[in-house]
Specification:
Layout lengths: L1 H11 L23 H11 L4 E2 L5 H12 L15 E8 L6 E9 L14 E2 L5 E4 L3 E8 L8 E8 L8 H23 L15
Antiparallel strand pairs: 1-2, 2-3, 3-7, 4-5, 5-6, 6-7
Helix pairs in contact: 1-2, 2-4
Amino acid sequence: MAFLSLSAAACSSGSDEGGDKGVVASEVCGGFAKGVPSGAALEVVMGAERFTSDLSEPDKALDALREAALIDQSSKSGKPRMQGIPFCWLLSAEDGERALRVALREESGVPDRDARFGDSVTYFSTGGRAYASDSLASVFFTCRIKAPAHEIVIATKLEGPDGSGTPQKDARAHLITIANAAARHVAAELGCQDPRLVEGVPVES
């Protein structure tokens, strides 16, 4: 598993910023990528150890989801739902060119597994549905918040840079690990009950 080799790389990169620009993986966007699996995956995907996140709007995304949960789902039929808000938008601090974006949005439900995707995506076991392609990853999960809020379905949508120099199987595992870590962070911030989001690296399903 590629993450075994990533562990050493993650441990060797310190969190002291010194005079360098940007922050390390464990500090971006509320610290959702703390720990070896997600932090190391982020470094591999971005080809960098430091990042800037000026375009991120984590508080706005979370507040929008809290507001969405206050509305009864049955009253939203045919009406617009909360659209994607960039929970975390990262640029490589080294060159400012490679970018990764994690957006949150409200969905009407968890999508079914679609056989038409074929080998273009890999499905993983976390949340209600999760899959990744070579530069995209999505994690859908149900968030049950205490009354007066209502149950909502949240989609965590990741768009990564093209090509990380790793085999396809590993690249998709890296992307879904980052997306899942973001989803877990969001679920914890919202107080979602039993979102069924696994720890660490999701397994293929």
